[in-house]
Design brief:
CATH topology: GMP Synthetase, Chain A, domain 3
Structural class: alpha+beta
Mean pLDDT: 90
Radius of gyration: 14 Å
Helix content: 55-70%
Largest sheet: 3 strands, mixed
CATH class: Alpha Beta
Number of helices: 6
Number of strands: 3
Distance between the termini: 35 Å
Oligomer: single chain
């Protein structure tokens, strides 16, 4: 079924929107339970993932792990879906 939805989205020109949605909804499984408790993926815009973070110390920690998280997301999708992450 997932493949059928991807094919339909591609046919309708909505493939990028579907990928963006999947990045946001997969955030917890990508970063793990501990980080997911203090963050929330909010949206994707033009390859930029916006993530809300509960505290400044967590924001600083995640900023240092930004490249690692981006690589994990892009590896999961098999291409460069996320070009930047902004923690807010």
């Amino acid at each position: 079924m997932g493949a059928a939805i991807r094919d339909l989205a591609k046919h309708l020109g909505l493939e990028k929107n579907l990928e963006d949605y999947q990045v946001v909804t997969s955030w917890a499984e990508i970063v793990g339970e501990q980080i997911a408790k203090v963050t929330q993926a909010q949206r994707m815009e033009n390859g930029v993932l916006f993530v809300g973070v509960a505290t400044a110390p967590w924001r600083a920690e995640l900023s240092m792990k930004r490249m690692e998280i981006m690589q994990k997301i892009n590896a999961l999708f098999g291409k460069n879906v996320v070009k930047e992450i902004r923690f807010r």
